[in-house]
Amino acid sequence: MAEEPTWNNMMNPEMHFPLPPQSEEPWGRCVSLISEHDKELCAGWTEEINIMLVFAALFSAIVTAFLVECLKDIREDPAHTSAQLLYQILAQMRNASTDQEPELPPVPEFSPPASAIWINSLWGVSLALSLLAVMLCILCLQWLRAFRRSHPGLSRDRTLAMRQMKYEGLNYWGTPPIVSSIPIILLSSLFLFLAGLAYYIYDSSAIVAIPLIVLTGIIAVIFGATTLLPGIIDLSNLISSTRN
């Protein structure tokens, strides 16, 4: 009886693993392995994107509620304008019996406070970033669904070719970096919201705003460290390797 060929007696004496059976179809084995890899990859991305999508949707609703309330501070109050006009009418009625032209006080032009402008700007950008994250989550889910769509009528070799074409398209459109950038966008949106909230509370009471300001500063330091330090380390390693 012939001895089963092994890596030990054919190529490398340090390896003792048998060769795959000759009867197994190589294309089928490739399709099975790649399908398992794609399934795990898409499942991980889909779970992560769904979590971020729920967070972004809820966070957008919270920011919208604050923004709608704060927008009143940068709009002219109709009641104040009506009071000024009524005061002018009253002054005209008092001087109606005289021949002199009544001196009416000018209606002051409305000028929103600087704090309200800053707060609305911070919350507006925060809401825009949160909605951008929602849009990217939806797009990525659609791309992953199209990537996982099967083609049962194709042969195994054409199935692999179709899969490779879609995989290259997935990378060409930047799906991996887009998925990785969504948490950064959401954290930036959260930081801007906390900064605006701290400013909003500080405008009313500085003592109450101090804990929130400290918390916002800690979040900013952590966010900056975790975002910038890996890039700085990679850049320093690249510079040191080029010098060597």
TrEMBL record:
Domain of life: Eukaryota
TM ranges: 49-68, 117-141, 172-202, 208-233
Residue ranges of coiled coil: none
Keywords, alphabetical: Membrane, Transmembrane, Transmembrane helix
InterPro entries: DUF6535
Domain annotation DUF6535: ranges: 27-201
Name of protein: DUF6535 domain-containing protein
